[in-house]
Amino acid sequence: MTAGLSRLFLDHFFRSSLVAEVNDRLVGFLVGFLSPSQPTVAYIHYVAVDPDFRAKGLARELYTRFFDLARADARTVVQAITSPQNHRSIAFHTSMGFTVSAPYENHDGPGTTRVRFDRTL
Ligand SMILES: CC(C)(COP(=O)(O)OP(=O)(O)OC[C@H]1O[C@@H](n2cnc3c(N)ncnc32)[C@H](O)[C@@H]1OP(=O)(O)O)[C@@H](O)C(=O)NCCC(=O)NCCS
Questions:
Q1: How far apart, in whole angstroms, are the C-alpha atoms of residue 71 and residue 90?
Q2: All domains of the chain in start order, with CATH
Q3: Are residues 116 and 108 in contact, defined by beta-carbon separation less than 8 angstroms?
Q4: pLDDT over 80 at 114, yes or no
Q5: Whose CA is nearest to atom 27 of ligand 1?
Q6: Tens digits of residue pLDDT in 6-23
Q7: Residue 47 CA: which ligand 1 atom is closest?
Q8: What angle do CA 86, 88, 94 make, to 5 degrees?
Q9: Residue 1 has what pLDDT?
Q10: Whole-model pTM above 0.85?
Q11: Does 49 sit in the ligand 1 pocket, CB within 6 Å?
Q12: Is 61 helix (H, G, I), strand (E, B) or coil?
């Protein structure tokens, strides 16, 4: 996970990111930001929930709070991406009302096929 989540996201986007804790234990997080270049767009870079705490609505709660944060800044769309093999993420985002694009190649250079999620707020 650390490969896709360098420290800069924690240092510079913590005000638009969320953590979930149970008894001081980190059980989930969402790293997102309000695009500084696209004024209508909010972007979710990463979400993860501890396997012991999945299927309890935790990621839904994190997303719902991020949507509220984005709406409060007049953002009208939320975007995210994942690899086409991440069926769990695709199922989750579909449940959350995102559209799923067809896979497209070379997103981050050769060999990096991705799908994009879009959801209107
Ligand atoms: C994807 C992930 C964040 C979902 O977290 P979660 O807390 O278990 O999800 P929730 O319980 O909030 O589920 C919300 C909705 O998504 C659906 N969903 C979640 N995981 C699903 C799965 N594996 N298969 C099918 N549907 C799923 C739920 O059914 C639920 O829909 P509903 O509210 O209509 O019933 C979690 O599985 C995870 O951490 N995965 C590994 C990290 C990852 O792949 N992150 C995404 C990178 S883009």
A1: 23
A2: 2-120 (3.40.630.30)
A3: no
A4: yes
A5: 92
A6: 999 999 999 999 999 999
A7: 45
A8: 105
A9: 67
A10: yes
A11: yes
A12: helix
- Cβ–Cβ under 8 Å, residues 57 and 65: no
Q: 81-112 pLDDT, tens per residue? A: 999 999 999 999 999 999 999 999 999 899 99
Q: CA 64, CA 59: separation in Å to the nearest integer?
A: 8
* Alpha carbons 27 and 51: distance in angstroms, whole number: 9
CA 73 to chain centre: 17
Residue with tokens 């500084």: 36
Q: Name the 3-class secondary structure at 3.
A: helix
Candidates 45, 43, 47, 102; CA nearest to 78 is: 43
Amino acid at 42: A
Query: Which atom number of ligand 1 is nearest to the Cα of residue 93?
Result: 16
Nearest residue by C-alpha to atom 46 in ligand 1: 89
> Please, are residues 58 and 49 in contact by the beta-carbon 8 Å criterion?
yes
